[in-house]
Amino acid sequence: MGRIYDVLNSIEQYNLVRSQSASRPKKYVAVEPTTALDRLLDDKKRELEEQVSQYEEIVAELTGELETAEPVEDTFWTAAVGPEETVDLLVERLSAADSRVVMVLSTYTEQFFDIDTVGTRILDELSDALERGVEVRLLMRPELVPILPESIGQRYRESLTVDENEVVIEVPHPLKSQEVFAMIDLKDREFAGNVRAEFGPRWDAADRLTL
Q1: Local structure of 70: helix, strand or coil
Q2: Domain extents for the chain?
Q3: Which CATH code is given to the segment(s) 76-205?
Q4: CB neighbours of residue 138 within 10 Å
Q5: Tens-of-pLDDT digits for all 211 residues of the chain?
């Protein structure tokens, strides 16, 4: 009988049964089914809310520790292959920028401003970067201007900017000229400086775009 009472006591903790403590032996009666289910649901909701709160505290603590960690200056590179993977990598690196994003676009990047597909993700990420104080600059070929969505003139009228130690390079598809084959992300301050120097004259000679 002892184990039965242990089970009943456990169920009572969830308010699924009522007990008559004065009787010997102790008597139990089940609550109404709908009431029992409502109480069980409420208990589970409270447990989930507590778990969410605990995870949020853990994330906040880890985020603080990561933000105070010294940045790693070692050279590191990674790559993504495929249309979806390349966009995911670009969006990830844009979200990591905290100082400056500099984008140099060719005609191969037309898909990045397709407002119905991946372009929305790119533009939204650039918008988020601007809102958190990141400077954003965009250098493009004149052929790209007609395909820009109207919203770019409303959302990016100041200027477009990537931190000074990281370069993300798009690799065009060798067999499909209008598609991206891969994206290479290279963290190397010296290489990033060389890239800036390479495109510096083009920035100086570029015309300011007004929409």
Answers
A1: coil
A2: 76-205
A3: 3.30.870.10
A4: 19
A5: 457 767 767 677 667 777 766 667 777 777 777 887 888 888 889 999 999 999 999 998 888 777 666 655 567 888 888 878 888 888 888 888 888 888 776 654 555 555 455 567 777 888 888 888 888 777 766 666 665 555 554 433 332 334 567 788 877 777 776 677 788 888 888 888 887 787 777 777 776 766 5
